[in-house]
Specification:
The protein is built from no helices and 26 strands. With 320 residues, it is mostly beta strands. The strands form 7 sheets. The protein has a 4-stranded antiparallel sheet, with no helix packed on it. Strands 4-5-6-7 form a 4-stranded antiparallel sheet, with no helix packed on it. A 4-stranded antiparallel sheet has the order 8-9-10-11, with no helix packed on it. A hairpin with a 5-residue loop joins β6 and β7. It is globular, with a radius of gyration of 23 Å.
Length: 320
């Protein structure tokens, strides 16, 4: 987002038309002030599950019909809401079988172009794939640090081809799978050098296949190409001179990158290469529009959905 200033110039008459009096004022240049933009808009909708509520919600995703899927982590289930926030379904079967969640844990949700839903089933060390109605389709993963295994899988995203990317805050790699869970590649490594991770959390993929990863511990965001080569890296909190703690990350239709600050309850927005654009929340460290924000999603209308872990809700906004 850019705020455009429009300047209108005064005109100085030519010498042949200037009056003879030396006291006539020459028009001065004036400028139109920048328009004010509300960087803390009121939520259009608060989704809380009016039945038995939500506890520590984490991941959020929206399908092509506008239905909203939420990982209700504290209750180990996936909740499905319609666009108005009415509860449609609960995926709450307990266990380690197909379509079951043992203890869902903190993890993301992702939806592909066919509206298939991918759920990080953290405590079962696997990813599960469902159709939009919750019918089980596939699962993959086991406990370990080898290719295709997980310790604490957390972030998940899909690209336009349906490939699935997973971060693990105990394994310093991003793993890439095809739509059915076949391992394709990984990139990263333990460290703070460019291309490495200390505690990777949120992950997002833009329309060009670039991959953005939030690193909670290193307090930075990194951009990779589809082959896992690092293209850019930047830190949170440049606007207030305090390093933020990135958690969730998402990319809008214009390629801008949205990152939540877990500790300060803010959100920062960057262009596709990491240049700071604006922050949701002002420079005051006491102004926290969100309460431990851990999930971000967009719908096809450009509305943004933010999961508040401590608030026990999902807030829906029109973008400023």
């Amino acid at each position: 987002f850019a705020l455009t200033c429009i300047f209108s110039s005064g005109c100085v008459p030519s010498e042949s038309t200037l009056p003879t009096s030396t006291h006539s004022p020459i028009p001065t240049q004036t400028s139109t002030p920048e328009p004010e933009v509300n960087m803390n808009p009121a939520a259009l909708l608060e989704i809380k599950n009016q039945g038995d509520g939500m506890k520590d919600p984490y991941g959020v995703a929206v399908n092509s019909a506008g239905n909203i899927y939420v990982n209700d982590a504290g209750k180990s289930r996936v909740l499905v809401f319609d666009p108005a926030g009415n509860l449609l379904d609960k995926w709450d079967a307990k266990g380690s079988g197909e379509g079951e969640f043992n203890s869902l844990g903190f993890g993301g949700l992702a939806i592909d172009s066919n509206d298939n839903v991918f759920v990080v089933d953290n405590e079962n060390f696997r990813i599960q794939k469902f159709d939009s109605a919750g019918n089980f389709l596939a699962m993959w993963g086991s406990e370990g640090k080898e290719d295709g295994q997980f310790i604490r899988a957390i972030g998940i995203a899909t690209d336009k081809d349906g490939n699935v990317y997973v971060t693990d805050d105990a394994i310093p790699y991003v793993q890439k799978f095809d739509n059915d869970g076949n391992f394709l590649m990984k990139f990263g490594g333990d460290g703070v050098s460019k291309g490495q991770f200390k505690h990777a959390t949120g992950i997002a993929v833009d329309a060009n296949g670039n991959i953005f990863v939030a690193d909670y511990e290193a307090k930075r965001i990194q951009k990779f190409d589809a082959g896992g080569n690092v293209l850019a890296a930047w830190f949170m909190g440049t606007d207030i001179k305090v390093k933020g703690t990135p958690e969730a990350i998402a990319v809008d239709a214009n390629g801008n990158v949205y990152v939540t600050d877990y500790d300060l309850g803010r959100m920062q927005v960057f262009d596709n290469n990491g240049e700071f654009l604006w922050a949701w929340g002002d420079g005051s460290l006491t102004n926290a529009p969100f309460k431990r924000p851990v999930g971000i999603a967009f719908d096809t209308s450009g509305r943004i959905y933010v999961t508040n872990q401590s608030g026990g809700n999902v807030l829906v906004f029109n973008l400023p």
